[in-house]
Write a structure and sequence with these properties.
By secondary structure, the chain is of the alpha+beta class. The protein folds into 2 domains: 1-43, no CATH class; 46-109, Alpha-Beta Plaits, CATH 3.30.70.20. Helix content is 27%, strand content 22%. The strands form 3 sheets. The chain has a two-stranded antiparallel ribbon with strand order 1-2. The protein has a two-stranded antiparallel sheet with strand order 3-4. Strands 5-6 form a two-stranded antiparallel ribbon. Strand 1 and strand 2 (39-42) form a beta hairpin. Bound molecules: iron/sulfur cluster (SF4) (2 copies). One iron/sulfur cluster (SF4) binds at residues 44-47, 50-52, 68, 85, 87, 89-90, 105.
Length: 129
């Protein structure tokens, strides 16, 4: 229904489960489109033969734990992955600590135990329905 709850959950999960201090930092890794013609949430599909990883000149995109993960330290901001992704799941973001735009993508919240804990009770509740 285009409510953007997923965008908010993503941003809070990547902010140590805290609300943001500023709207400028609202940079979700899932994007909700809500237009008269289209209503959909778009994020990385963690492709099996990932085009983004194939084209990255620095091997900054790697397969790990059944997902495609970005090694931020290796990204040079060339944007090739943005062009290669057929789903529009890659974005470029300038961070406060680094004004150069670097790639950003869904990481499936791997290594975020708090996010997983928040998700589990909802799953248990749903399984009782
Ligand atoms: S960023 Fe795009 S190409 Fe890369 S794994 Fe995700 S959906 Fe596939
Ligand atoms: S922007 Fe970064 S992750 Fe994307 S292709 Fe270039 S170096 Fe790789």
């Amino acid at each position: 229904m285009g409510c953007k709850a997923c965008e908010i959950a993503c941003v809070i999960s990547h902010n140590d489960n805290q609300y943001l201090a500023s709207a400028d930092a609202f940079l979700p890794r899932i994007k909700v489109f809500n237009t008269p013609e289209l209503r959909s949430a778009v994020t990385c599909r963690h492709c099996e033969d990932a085009p983004c990883a194939s084209v990255c000149p620095t091997q900054a995109l790697v397969r790990k734990d059944n997902s495609i993960q970005l090694l931020k330290d290796k990204c040079i901001g060339c944007k090739t992955c943005v062009l290669a992704c057929p789903f529009g799941a890659m974005s470029m973001v300038a961070e406060p600590t680094n004004p150069a735009s670097l790639a950003r993508k869904c990481d499936l919240c791997i290594g975020r135990p708090k996010a997983r804990r928040a998700w589990q009770p909802a799953q248990r509740k749903r399984s009782r329905w």
